[in-house]
Each structure stands twice: as C-alpha cells, then as structure tokens.
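User: My advisor, Dr. K., asked me to get a structural model of this assembly before our group meeting. I'm new to this, so sorry if the format is off. These are the inputs:
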Amino acid sequence: MSAADTKKEEISEKTRETRDLILRNLQESLGVDKLTKQLETEGKVAHVYWGTATTGKPHVGYLVPMRKIADFLQAGLKVTILFADLHAYLDNMKSSWELLKSRVVYYECVIKALLQSLDVPIDQLYFTKGTEYQLSRQYTDDVLRLSSQVSQRDALKAGAEVVKQVESPLLSGLLYPLLQALDEQYLKVDGQFGGVDQRKIFILAEEQLPKLKLGKRWHLMNPMVPGLTGSKMSSSEEDSKIDVLDEPEKVRAKILGAACSRDQPDNGVLAFYNFVLFPIVSPEAIVISNQQFFEFSALKQAYLDGKLDENALKTFLAEFLVNLLDKVRARCDNDIVREAKEKGYSKIVESEDVSSPEKPLPQLNADQKTWKERIQSGTEVFHEKDLDRVLSTVSSSKPLHIMFVAQGKENSILDSLLLFSRSNLFWIQESQSKEPF
Amino acid sequence: MSAADTKKEEISEKTRETRDLILRNLQESLGVDKLTKQLETEGKVAHVYWGTATTGKPHVGYLVPMRKIADFLQAGLKVTILFADLHAYLDNMKSSWELLKSRVVYYECVIKALLQSLDVPIDQLYFTKGTEYQLSRQYTDDVLRLSSQVSQRDALKAGAEVVKQVESPLLSGLLYPLLQALDEQYLKVDGQFGGVDQRKIFILAEEQLPKLKLGKRWHLMNPMVPGLTGSKMSSSEEDSKIDVLDEPEKVRAKILGAACSRDQPDNGVLAFYNFVLFPIVSPEAIVISNQQFFEFSALKQAYLDGKLDENALKTFLAEFLVNLLDKVRARCDNDIVREAKEKGYSKIVESEDVSSPEKPLPQLNADQKTWKERIQSGTEVFHEKDLDRVLSTVSSSKPLHIMFVAQGKENSILDSLLLFSRSNLFWIQESQSKEPF
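Assistant: The format is fine. Below is the predicted structure of the whole assembly, which you can bring to the meeting.
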C-alpha cells in the first residue's frame, strides 16, 4: 500500500464525497491536499473566489462556471464572486463609473438568479467588486512590492493567455496578473476558481504571494468550453452569444443555428450537455428520442454513431435552456434589474433610429443656425446630423431625451454645461464602441 | 526678421535675464516658450520640482543639481524637492519605513544646509516625500489609467537609462517612469528638473499626461557630470564618493587622489569647476597660481595647455569644497541631523569594530549556550560571531546597543520580539548592502 493510499484512508467518506463534488468536471486542480485538509477540519468553511470583469453582459456561457460554483455551494464552500469593475474601467476607459456601477448591479442580479435557478443554497454566496479595495493604500503598496519582485518576463508569461495580445501590449496587461494574485489575499479566500486559461496567473500567485508572506492558495481550473453558437462565446460579438435574458424564440433560433458537427465533437452543444445538463440532471437520465442517457459519454457516442439526430439533440438543449432561462428571467423581472440594465447598457440604438433615412433633415431658421454655430465652435466631437434633428425637436418644444457626456477636466465640463444650459440645447453623441461613454 | 526674433523682442529684459539664469549650464530644455510666458506673467510664480530617491546619503555630487536649484531660487522660482521614499523602499525591500523616515529627515536637513551655504533665498524652497500621496486612491487610479495607455515597450524605453538594467528586469522598473510622470501632476508643478538621463521619462510625461488631461510641463535637463573621484559618483560605492558631511582631511585626500587627466578632460575635477565653482564665484574671477580665470573655458584651456598645475587645481578645489562643506556641517551640527543619521544609517561599522581580530570570542556558560541555541533555531539570518559577543556583553550586564530588524508579517515579528524580550537578548544583523536593513 503506497503512502498516497494510506493518506486516502485517513479522510472520511463524507470528505471524499464533498471533494469529488468540488473537483468533478475540472481540468486541473492545484493544492488539493490543502483543500482536503480544510474539508476535514471541523468548523472550517473553505472559501473560494471566482472573478469576472463587468464588461459586456452575462451570456449563457456563464452557465458553465456557474454550474461549477453550484457544486461548490452544494459542497458547503463559501463562494465569493468578484466583479472586476476596476479592470473593466481600465479595459475601456470610455466607460463612466456610473455606468460600471449599474453593470455590477446587473451582473449580481443575473448571476444570483442563475444560481438560484440551479436550485443550490446561496446563503454562502457573496458578491464584491474590485474597487472596494483595489485602490486602497495597502493594496497599492502590495502591488508595488509585488512589482519589485516579479520580473517583466514572468508577468508577461503569466498574462499571456488572458491579456489581449495586441501589437503593442499595454503595461496594464503586465499588472493584471499581480492584481488578480493579490485579490486572493484581500478577499481572504482559501482558493481561487477559474478557467484553465488562468493557470499561469494561478501559478504566479502560488509562487509570489508566499514571498510577501501573503499565503498560498489552492486553485481549481475549469476546461475551456467552446461557445454554444461559435468557436468562442464572446460577450462582445452579438451573433455569437445567447444573452441570459434573451427571449425563448431567440434562444431556440440561435441553438438550432449552432455548429454541432460530428467531425468536430468539441463543439458548444455537446460541451453544454457535458458541463451543464448532465451535472444538473444526474443522477436522473436525459431522455432524447426515447433514448435514456445517464452519462455524457454515452450520449456523445450515440450522437457520433448517428444514433441520435442533430435536430433532436439541439431541440432538447434549447427547451432545457429556455426552461432554465425562464426561471432566471422571472427572478430578474423587477425594477432593480431593469434600471441597472438601462443605466449600464443604454445603447445608442435611439440615436440610430433618429438617423434612419426616412426622416429628412429639418430646415433650420436663423436663430437655430446661430446656435448651431456657437455650439459647434465649442466642441470637436459633434455629429452634424444629430444636431440638426435635435434643433428640430427643440424648436418643436417637445421634451428632448439627452445624455451629457463628461469629458476632460472639471473646468471644461462646467464650461460645456453652462454653454448648453444657456442655449437650452444638448447633443447626442455616438460613441465608437456603440456604447455610451 | 523671423517670427522667433519678433517673439524675442516681446519679452522684457528682466524676463530674458531670469530665463538665462534658469537655463544656464543646462544640456537641454523642453517647453521654454511656456516657461518664458510664465515668467512674463505678473503674479505668477513658476514652480519646478527635482526628485531623488533616499537610498544612500547625499554626496558632493549633489552640489551640481543643487547649484542649478540655487539658480532657480535666485531666479524667483518656487522649488519643490521630492524625496522618493516609496521608490527607495521598493528598491531595497529590506529597508524599514522607520529607517526611510529618518533618511528623509537627514536628506532634507543636509540639502537645506547645502542650499543655504550657497547663499540663495530659500523661502520658496519646499520639501515633500513620495509616500505623502503616491499610495493615495486618486494617484493609484491615475497610475492604472496610465498603464492602460502606455505600452510595455514605451515604458521600457522611458526607463532605459534610469532603471537598473539587470538580466531579468523587474516589473517595477516599468512602473517608475509612470510614477515620476504623475508626480508632476500631484506636486502641482509647472516643470521638472533632472539629469539628461531622465530625458525619456520627461518625454513620456509630455506625451502621456495630456492624454489624461493632466497637463504638459516644461523640462530642464542637467548634463551628466562625472563624479569627483570616479567615473560616476555613486552613493553606494564608498571609495567613489565624498560625503557632504565628510571631515576636511578626508575631503582633501579624496580630491587629491581623484583622476584629472589632461587626456580625458571630461573628468570630475574640471566638471566641478564648470558646474559648481564658476557659477558660485562669477562674476568674480577664480585665482589659482596667480592666474585669473573669469570663465571655465579659459581655465580648462590653461590646464590642458599645461599652464596650470594639477596639484594647484586640485588644492584650490579641495579648499573651496572644505570651506563650503564647513558651512554645511555647521548648519547640520544639531540633534535632529545626528538622530536622523543614527537612525537612518546606523552602519554595521560598529559590528565590524567589535569583530576586529584583537578581541577574542568570549567563552559562553551553560545558560548562555542554551539561549544561543534557542535563538538560533528561531532565525536563519544570524551571525554567529556577533551572537557570541552579544551574549558576552549581556552577561557582563553592560547596556547593549541594539537594532531590531523587523522582517515578515506582524505575527512573526511579534514572536521574535517576545522571544528576545524573554531572553533579554537582541542581535545585530549585517545586511548584504553594507547598510542596515
């Protein structure tokens, strides 16, 4: 009997079961010994964190990590979800803090609804955001201390799979791995969970934090799962994602249009069965076209062998998702979510509607022309067509829906406000990112 | 008449003189137009900053930038000297904050005494340190914003001449240029002064800060001047530097031993005449061996032509320096400086004295041996010889001068303190850098 076997026998059956639940479907786990010890310790509640930047909107791809987080909660772990609002801010410096605040609220509501719809206890589920501590004196001190101990090469390597690889990489890309490592300390967690693309950052944390006497955590890694409707489900590509709050018809249409080739079985549809459906349904069977499947491998084999029709496979998944998202949407049917969505994602669609070719540009009178010139001379970021329409609306005395875009230092903002309040005019500006500034 | 000539005529004689004083002896200046405009503006006091990391001790090489700062003060500028204590801390993470605090006090006293001894008005001279604001939320936010806009390559290039070039460069080296650029904003200055080795950092500041709407400053650059007794005067090489508070005989000996080759006229001795002596003495003449020199170029030529004796040249410089440093030492002859020096630089010289071969190691009794073992088991950083001597001193009931080195997190420090207070013992530790931790 090997030493490892002896050790195995030392832990209780319950601990082993709990650990198996925590580790199932993961691609890799570091520090399992430590985790096991914590699970064995009476009165200890092991604490894990998962982080996400609040850039786009939660899509159904989130169900894969959420299903894992459901396992953690089911296993009795304390789970903290970190919304990296500071990272989101830095990622797109055009996002205002007001907007990012609303997005954090939106993310929290949707993710909470997702987990509740997965029928797991959420009394040990906590949410926080990066700006709660990432600009604190102590955190900054630790970031600087880390930066004095981590080489440029190591920081670069750590972020290689996560940080956008552009022609001229930004310095922030080197800092992110350090920030993420330090989050473990400041969230007071015992371990971190993420995609296996985070592996090098996890390794950096395991190597560097102990040098600053900031502890070493265990790390759990999900495999990288292809998106349902594309090679990678991205919140920034409208066509490739299914929004968590999408209407049933949209969900059905997108899934039926998804790639699910028998030649490339590593597709999103099959992955979803593996990482979302089976963990939810087990130990019951999934029944499609009168065939019972108790395990993913059996279903996959049947599909690859042609014993399972593509349409049937997709339809079952679509109905499953629609049913699940129905519950999520019901939980999100409240003013908090509506307001957060409106404030956090108010698209420039309205501006596009206004500029549809059907509506001709209005004629301006002398007064309006003078105002137009005055306003134009004060700003370089101006859409002429929008202005003409706005002036028309103002001249018709209708209420005007406006967005004021604060740019630059207080003085110039104040100047602009004064100018516009004097003129009774505002302008609508289209951002390059198709999202409000 | 060109446009530039026209412009020249627009400024007053007084502004031109002031500007000439500010710009004399500099190697390069950026944004002189802006500076000139500020000098012309009634009621405006232009504000410049110069920064230094409080690592070693101010040596006579500091007289070169101080002489320039004297020009700035004479010209009526407001001058802020920034002590980069955070940089010093990160540069050598073994430095305790307590020690760095004392060093800042020491630097401030000595530099103030230097400038006073140069007979310039110091009512517009201010001192501050990096930790006053460099760990603030706003500053950190700006550092992160900058890091999201500056490429790794640009940060690397900016710091190339200033940041230590080691085999595996640290991430902190990429951050320093950003911090230094932001200092301009947080010190609310109009311009920055530094060695021409800072040029790329200054350029980074001029290019990047405006993108964050944080203003663009002018930059004044001193040439790189060789050290008096070596190719570069470094505070970390004992033999190559003359401490500002060195005794006259030490100063004389070091200067007489300095290289001053006619084949290599870019030496420290001649440079000192150019950048320190002449600016101080002018418009009077420097008289050596009955020869009058009103300008450095004339003196240099005489020396190169062999019309001026090397010994005479060095002796004059030595006496000049001794005379100047006499005044500085007199101003520093007080308890504040003494205490700051003791706390900030308590060298291990004492420990070396103790370990001189004349004094044999004491015999330990049984009790002392037990203590020794107990203490040794608790720490890996221990000098056996020192311990034996310390134990001897303790056993003789003499008061023991100690330095407690706090390392690691609070718990382990507390443990160590408890251990040592129980044992009535402390230890002296020799740092690798030949300076106390």
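One thing worth pointing out at the meeting: Residues 102 and 342 of chain B are 8 Å apart (CA to CA).

User: Perfect, thanks a lot.
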